[in-house]
Design a protein that fits this description.
The complex is a heterodimer of chains A (296) and B (390). Chain A is α/β, with parallel strands linked by helices and 296 residues long. Chain A is built from ten helices and 14 strands. Chain B is built from 15 helices and four strands. Chain B has a four-stranded mixed sheet with strand order 2-1-3-4, sandwiched between helices. In chain B, a hairpin with a 3-residue loop joins strand 3 and strand 4. The chains are: A alpha/beta (296), B mainly alpha (390).
Chain lengths: 296, 390
């Protein structure tokens, strides 16, 4: 279990972290969200000693994280980077050994991950000879080669094509299912909603919302009503009390309302205007929850 | 994993990856060619036929004259005499450039133009001497009787033994080799640190390794690679000299000089490698490597220039600098080769240098740690020092 507890870090006048607390259990896949500059990267770096907080603590299973524990963690920074001229297999073996694997184990792990990522035939290529997408995969393999108990990925989906995104998503899900504590930051909220059961949202250096995606959505008093009629227009919905039109397209209308809206009366008004082909009443999406949480 | 294991892993990576690089292989081959050429070419030149002084003569030069000349010249050049019927024939041979000089009646030596060469002067002396001996013999005085008088010269005693030209050459090679090797591999450290920083791989590495172990491993790996190059070059030089046989003399001081270079290279790299690494961490682009390392390049160059000015005769400045760590590697090495340094002096210089290595690791590590994770423009030393607290 990873615990960031009440972390604060200032850079001159800027508070990068301001009482940030967060926990992540083994087997959990946590989406770490926040606007640019909210403190995501600083929080992640603090796990690896790349940032030393002014206040607060970072622990793994209750123990302060030192160099030895860090060998059991994997990290993929937002700014990707490896040794451009080093051969791919050698590179994986090197990072495996830096994390405490023996030469033999590191070699076997490198083979396994290259096979898994479909890059076995590139084992002796220099990294710089690989395509951008394949370099990304090697970067991922570097963070995984020592079978970490905790995996922290900063924007792992950025720069990936749709197939890459899917492969990465499947892999993260599988790692979590295997008991790895996985945490990643992302701006692609739809993706996070699909992938994660849990998210934490950070803003101005502190966690403003944390929990299961489903719970966070339903916990909001806001609801969205979407109605489509077979014929006619959407003028029936004008000036309905307690609602606000947020989008319309032909006879299709989307309204913001609250969880105590009188659905029966709303449905009656719609049915009077035409035959209903779609009527949905939903809590806000993750990105709507996000916008509410960070108030921008 | 222990600190030692981590440092060794980093060092081995630096060593292996760079030893495989084209830059290293080509530079080693280039240096080897230079060294072998420097040893073999003079030997080949030495084996050449000794020079000849060709002379046309209308006067019969007797065997005594020829023998005297050979003795005085040590066989180089040898004297080749072409006896012609008269002075006119000799003069035209000289004018036509067929011979180096002509001996005509008188006897007198003629040359085509300009100042006479050393060999021609020698010939003039020998012919004159032979004439004088013949005159004396006619007067009943034998050369044996007066030869003690001919050596009426007061003795000259040097206060210090003359510098052995071979030791001088060793001192010269040692100074140049140390300077060039520390500078070259120091630049590799600077560039290696900048490369890790700009490619951002340093963030991945430092997620698993402490900055001081990365720093120490990098300096050790690149430093040992340089030591390996010095070693290979030294062994090949020795092999070339041995294969060359008698024509290539191996100076007696060569093994000492070689060990002194190796020792002071390692000590020097301990000091300069760490300083170069800290300097590299401040830079933000490869192009800034030279500027970043400049203060330390200047320090190293001071030791080099001071040594260079005193290769044959270590002066007071060299003696003083040979104890001061940033300058000691080159200057003390020179004094050791010259046999000018007492054992206690070497040991004292080593102790001071090790203290300096400890200090630069402590201080350099802080600058390195503060700067290597930064990005954006080049950092100032003060900024790096402060941001070490991250």
């Amino acid at each position: 279990m990873l615990d960031l507890s009440n972390l604060s870090k200032r850079y001159g006048p800027v508070a990068a972290l301001d009482g940030c607390s967060l926990s992540l259990a083994r087997g959990q896949l946590l989406g770490f969200l926040g606007p640019n500059g909210a403190g995501k990267t600083t929080a992640m770096r603090s796990v690896f000693g790349l940032v030393s907080p002014d206040l607060g603590s970072v622990t793994w299973d209750g123990r302060a994280i030192g160099p030895e524990l860090r060998h059991r963690f994997g990290y993929m920074p937002e700014q990707r980077g490896l040794y451009a001229r080093m051969r791919v297999h050698d590179q994986l073996v090197y990072f495996g050994r830096l994390h405490g694997l023996s030469r033999t184990d590191a070699g076997a792990a490198a083979d396994r991950w290259l096979g898994e990522l479909g890059l076995s035939d590139r084992a002796t290529s220099r990294l710089e000879e690989l395509s951008h997408g394949n370099q990304q995969r090697i970067q991922l393999a570097v963070s995984l080669v020592h079978d970490p108990e905790l995996l922290v990925l900063d924007e792992p989906f950025s720069g990936l094509d749709p197939i890459g995104v899917e492969t990465m998503g499947d892999l993260l899900r599988r790692l979590a299912a295997d008991g790895v504590a996985v945490m990643f930051s992302s701006h692609q909220l739809d993706l996070v909603e699909d992938l994660c059961e849990e998210v934490a949202i950070i803003d101005r250096g502190a966690i403003v919302l944390e929990g299961a995606v489903r719970t966070l959505r339903t916990a909001s008093p806001r609801r969205y009503l979407e109605v489509e009629l077979r014929r006619g227009d959407s003028s029936w919905a004008d000036d309905l009390p307690g609602t606000e039109v947020v989008g319309r397209e032909g006879s299709r209308i989307r309204m913001a309302t609250t969880d105590d809206a009188d659905l029966e009366s709303l449905a009656g008004r719609a049915a009077a205007a035409g035959e209903i082909t779609q009527f949905s009443f939903e809590p806000p999406s993750l990105s709507e929850v996000f916008r509410e949480a960070v108030q921008r | 994993m222990t600190a030692w294991q981590t440092t060794r892993l980093v060092a081995v990576r630096e060593l292996v990856e760079r030893a495989r690089s084209k830059a290293f292989i080509l530079s080693t081959i280039f240096i080897l060619l230079l060294v072998v050429a420097a040893i073999v070419i003079p030997a080949l030149v030495d084996d050449d036929d000794p020079g000849e002084l060709t002379v046309a003569s209308s006067v019969a030069l007797d065997a005594g004259t020829l023998e005297q000349f050979e003795q005085a010249s040590g066989g180089d050049p040898t004297l080749v005499v072409d006896t012609l019927p008269d002075d006119a024939a000799v003069q035209s041979a000289v004018e036509a450039g067929e011979v180096d000089a002509g001996v005509v009646n008188g006897p007198e030596i003629i040359i085509s133009s300009g100042d006479p060469s050393g060999a021609v002067r020698l010939l003039a002396t020998v012919i004159g001497f032979e004439g004088a001996v013949a005159d004396l013999a006619e007067r009943g005085i034998s050369i044996e009787d007066i030869s003690p008088l001919l050596q009426a010269e007061v003795p000259i005693t040097p206060l210090e033994p003359a510098p052995d030209p071979e030791d001088e050459a060793l001192g010269f090679f040692g100074v140049v080799l140390l300077y060039v090797t520390i500078l070259t591999y120091g630049q590799w450290v600077v560039l290696g640190v900048i490369e890790e920083k700009t490619s951002r791989v340093v963030e991945v590495v430092l997620g698993a390794v402490q900055p001081r172990h990365l720093l120490a491993g990098k300096v050790a790996g690149i430093g040992l690679l340089g030591a390996g190059q010095v070693l290979v070059v030294g062994l090949i030089a020795l092999a070339a000299a041995v294969l060359g046989g008698d024509s290539v003399p191996i100076p007696d001081a060569a093994p000492t000089a070689f060990l002194a270079v190796l020792l002071w290279y390692l000590v020097g790299f301990g000091i300069y490698g760490v300083m170069f690494a800290a300097a590299g961490a401040l830079a933000s682009r490869q192009e800034e490597a030279g500027n970043a390392a400049l203060p330390f390049t200047v320090l190293l160059t001071i030791g080099y220039l001071v040594s260079f000015s005193a290769i044959d005769n270590p002066n007071l400045l060299v003696r003083v600098l040979s104890f001061l760590p940033p300058f000691a590697p080159i200057t003390m090495q020179l004094r050791m080769v010259n046999g000018d340094a007492a054992l206690w002096e070497v040991i004292l210089a080593l102790i001071l240098s090790f203290a300096m290595i400890y200090a630069v690791i402590r201080v350099g590590e802080r600058f390195y740690r503060g700067a290597v994770l930064g990005h954006g423009r080049r950092l100032r030393w003060r900024e790096a020092w402060r941001s070490a607290d991250r």
